[in-house]
Amino acid sequence: MSNKREREKRREERLQEEAKVDTGERRTRLLQFGAGAVFLVIVAVVVLIVANSGGSSGGDAENLKEVSAVDSLVAGVPQNGMTIGKPQAKVELIEYGDLQCPVCKAYSEEILPAVIESKVDSGDAKITFHNFTIIGEQSTPAGAAALAAGEQGRGWNYLELFYRNQGKENSGYADDEFLTAVAKAAGVKNIAKWEKERKSAKLTDEVKATTAQAIRYGFTGTPSFAIKGPGSNGTELLGSPSTPGEFEEAIEAAS
What we know:
Helices cover 44% and strands 15% of the residues. By secondary structure, the chain is α+β, with helices and mostly antiparallel strands. It has one domain: Glutaredoxin (3-Layer(aba) Sandwich), CATH 3.40.30.
């Protein structure tokens, strides 16, 4: 089954599940960004997430899912730290996210794969992930674990695999066992090195630094995006575009 058909199947399953749940349990995240303190409310179907999304079907260190789908998505695409795409790509799309965030999970499954396939694979853009930890205390060590995987060229494998196996936020699932299981499944070769680095002050401080940067930009929700390229005015804030097409238009404008 192709990545596109897999995404369509997941989207249909998500919509069927959401139809059974009280609207009071649905969640959207608010995002404040840009000049004039403009507020956006993202009310796209793809970012309507049930509060207990993941639940019993996620957060299981002994039963990680979609490993092959993640491998297929990022196969053959250069990675450098937490950046995916050709280093010479003129446009850089920057995501500020929290690994425990269910809306970030939705973006990783429903929106960003299409952008990777259309704009990253072609060399038009690269995407960099920055931690913006707003969910809970396990968000920082999870973010540092992703950075440590990035040190071995498996950062996006780790990020995508974590999202696809995400449990209920702040349920305690993102413990050492889960983080290590994701690292192994993501193809991190030197687990001992990864263990040391994920607990280092250097990577923990990096998580804190990018979180502080997101706050300075005025972001208040995850995921939030910025972009820079030869056609942009420095780093421009995008907020949270809700379709692949909106991302593609932003990339073309920044080219």
